[in-house]
Structure formats: structure tokens, C-alpha cells
Amino acid sequence: MNRRNFIKTTAAASLAAGAAARALAAQQQAAASSPDPRFASNLVPTDRKIRLAVVGVGGRGQSHVKGHFEAGAELVAFCDVDAARAAESFALFPKVPRFRDYRQMLDQMGDKIDALSICTPDHMHYPIAILAINRGKHVYLEKPLTHTVAECRALKKAALRAGVVTQMGNQGHANNGCRLVKEWIAAGLLGKISEVHAFTNRPIWPQGLALKKSEKPPETLDWNLWQGVADEREFSPGIVPFNWRGYWEYGCGAFGDMACHILDGAFFALDLRGNCKVSAKVDADPSYAVTAPKGSTVIYDFPARGDRGPLKLYWYDGSHRPPVPPELGPDAKIGRNGCFIRGEKGIIIDQSTYWNEPRLYPVELNKRRAEIPQSIRRIPGGNQWREFLDAIHGVGPAPGSNFVDHAADLTEMTHLGNIAIRAGRAIEWDAEKAVCVNDPAATRFVTKAYRKF
């Protein structure tokens, strides 16, 4: 073969190999992007926008409005019980129909709504989401997913039965960090895992306090609708619009508010489901049982599961802080929020709320990072809003933090910590039966009563 023929033959072979590689990559991408058949009901054709309603459009709800709109959704209805709180979203989209009662919105709008995005106080997550799912609507729901363990399980079953796309608003799950941590641990980079420590500066709202004196609610607020399924009580300015997070009747305290973010990477990588023992040490005046404590340390003991051995998980909030990992050096400090996972070969630490920057210590572990292949699909730009809409259009798989595979189980795990806090003693959790086997009285916190309103 002369030089000219050699170059021509080699070039042709190179082109063919390149085409084959591109075809394989396209097939892999298509497989990774195909919708999960379990969640394929009422998918929306790609030639029209997804018609989305938002329940709770003030405060954090403003990010729902803007995030879904910028990702390409058509905003078709707003629902909020407080016109003053919702004023900014109303002003940005003055032509979008407005409602105060989500039930009336669903009744009147009917098939004009494809999906709901829900950003209300925790106690109303489940009532709104279950009604929407039972009507065949896709649901994006803020964290924590629910107010109780029983609600987690009911939403999970309903979403699977209805076949609708769901996603919890722990937006860090769409970041690369969670995926990297799972890949590193699965590859054995840390060896046997023994401990997880997670911490937050929350509460940044009052906890461990009694309710303030009752007052007349503002004219812009429908107090009955805000209370919803909670027990009826007179309006108190110590609850609305932000401090409800600390009251058991409406929120889940610092633990419930932040753990679905900060523990997400560890839960995802280590499969922290199933039976466990949970205890808590708290700063609280027992006369104020209506609120979560000012600070707490919660300790989980998880038995071995699959390839993972037994491990301890520690949660710290308020003034409670973890020991600084010695792997970081003698003068190291830790930030306000974060998590570290300790194995026999070192640690992974992320000092953010959303698993933005997981790091390995000792630094020598980073030499092996490049050897670990990517095995988990990435979300372009970490855009959880786009992830949700793509799944509804059928051009992407189920969101990573969907109710069935991830969000309900993650939220349930965090509720166990709050059950131990409220019980005031260690609980032994039987996941199959959903009971505290050593403390029947503590099992009452697994569910709750609902007011008709």
C-alpha cells in the first residue's frame, strides 16, 4: 500500500469509527433521556408549552414562578391565601388568573392545568398535592415533601398509581455534587463508610418559644385557608409569614426544613432507608411543646444494608456543632451548613447547603477521581425546573428527586429524627410496619388528624 492509499484508507476508517462513536453516544443519550414508563401519564406534546399553576406565589414561591417560567412553562393560574404576600408575583404576571382556594382553582380550571408547583407551609403540602395527583396533574412540591411519615407513604403510592411526573424542591439533587459523591463511594474511594455528620445554622426563626398574643389577622390574609387542615386557632403574628417553620402544627423545625437539602448527598449515596434506631439531645423548655427546640443533636444508628456496613449519622442544628474533621488540618474550621462522610480511607466534605462543592481529604484521594467513570446522568446546568418540564414533555427521564424513588424516602428519614425529638427518648423504627416498636406512644407522630375547612 502506497502512502496516498494508506492515508485515504486510514482517514476513511477514522471517519467510520467517529461516526460509530457518535451513533453510540446518541443511542446512550436517547436511552438516558427516555421517559420512565412508570411516570408517563398525561405527558404534554413538545409542540406546546406545559400549562402550570403555582400554589403559594409569595416568598419562596416567587422562585417557583420565575423558575418555571424561565424554563419554558406557561403560567395559567396563581393561588395564594395572602394577596399582600403574593403582590410581586401578581404584578409580574398581571394576566394570570388568581385564586385563594386551591380546590376552587382545580375545579374551575380543570383540564386547562397540566401541572402544579406547590410552595406553601409544610402542613398543606400533602392535601394540595394528593388532590392534584388524584386528578392526574404532575406535581413539583417544595421540601420537606410532607408533614408526616404517613403522608410520605401516601404520596408515594398515589404518584406511582397515577403515573404522573413528580419532583421535590431539594434543588441540590440536580447538581453534579450529589452524583459525584454517589459515584465516588460506589467506586470504593473511601472504603468502608462509618459515619455521616450534617450541620446547619438553622433555626434562623424563633423556636422553643410560646405563641405570641392573638391579634386580628391582616385584611389581605384569609386566615382560615392558611390554617387549612391544621387545628383552628386565633391568628398570631408570631406564625405568619415566616416563623411557622418552628411550630409543629405547621412546620418541621430546623431539621425538617434543612435536612432534605443537607443530607441529600449522603442519603443518595448510602441508601439510608429501612429500620434504624434514632435518639436526640435537645435544648428546649418542655413547657413549649408547640415548637421545635432551639437546638438539637440527632443520632441515627443504621444496620448494614446491601454492600454498606452499619453506620452512624449525626445531625446538628442551632448551637449544636460537629467536631471539626481532623483530616482538614489542625487550624481548620467548618462553615454554617454542610455534611461530611467518613470512610476508612478519608472523608468527603461539602460545606454548602446544596452539595455544590464536595471535596476529598486527604488530598491524595483526588488522584483517583479521574479514574472513576461517570455512571449517573447529569442535569444540564443543574436546572431542576427544566428537569421537571422535560420529564412532562417525555424528552427526559423521571426527575432524580421524584416522590417514588427518592423524595418520599428521604423525607421519611428526616421525620424519624423529629419523632425522636418530640418523643424525648430513643425510638426503634420498624420501616415495614411504620411503627416505633419500643414506644407505641411515639408512633402517634407518624400521622395526624385533619380539620375540615
Quick rundown:
The chain has 453 residues and is of the alpha/beta class. It has 12 helices and 15 strands. The protein is globular and about 60 Å long.
Characterise this structure.
By secondary structure, this protein is α/β, with parallel strands linked by helices. It has a domain at 175-210 and 248-376 and 402-446: Dihydrodipicolinate Reductase, domain 2 (2-Layer Sandwich). Helices cover 32% and strands 16% of the residues. The chain has helices at residues 3-33, 61-71, 87-92, 102-109, 125-134, 149-162, 176-186, 223-227, 253-262, 264-270, 384-393, 403-423; strands spanning 51-55, 74-79, 98-99, 115-118, 138-141, 166-168, 193-199, 276-283, 295-302, 311-317, 338-343, 346-350, 359-361, 427-430, 435-436. The strands form two sheets. A nine-stranded mixed sheet has the order 13-12-11-7-10-9-8-14-15, covered by helices on one side. Strands 3-2-1-4-5-6 form a six-stranded parallel sheet, sandwiched between helices. α5 (125-134) runs parallel beside α6 (149-162), α7 (176-186) packs parallel to α10 (264-270) and α9 packs antiparallel against α12 (403-423). The longest helix has 31 residues, at 3-33. The relative contact order is 0.16. Mean pLDDT is 92; it is low at 6-17 and 20-28.
